[in-house]
Amino acid sequence: MRELRKDAIEKKDRHDVSEITATKYVYQDKYGILHASDFEDTAYYYSTGAYVATDEISTSHGYPVINGVKVKLYGAGEGYVYTSKYARDNDIRCNVTDHPIEGTKFEHVELSSEVKEAYRIANEFYMMLKF
Predict the structure, then answer these.
(1) pTM, 2 dp
(2) 128: helix, coil or strand?
(3) pLDDT (tens digit, 9 = 90+) per residue, 14-64?
(4) What is the C-alpha separation between 12 and 123, in angstroms, rounded?
């Protein structure tokens, strides 16, 4: 399930562990970094106006975990992601497609198929939030 949400909700002062469900909330912060939370109000409060409710991921310390891979994504575009602030600032992209993308600088690091797939899915979430 992937549901884009923009609803304004009230921020809670504290959360109880019993509130955690299988639904997680993916959002982009004001710096363009992709995050994930167990709590919808946190996603709304720290997002840039929209967030995605999903049951396809888990979370670890504010970041999405996709198929067991903790994803730190600093930006994305069609078919590529930025895996660090330095890469984003210098437009060094990481290709997450199965085909070459011409005309841009790409990282020279070869990702394992599991990591590449996790970043490809993260790219899909990021592109849903890009507006």
Answers:
(1) 0.90
(2) helix
(3) 888 788 899 999 999 999 999 999 999 999 999 999 999 999 999 999 999
(4) 29
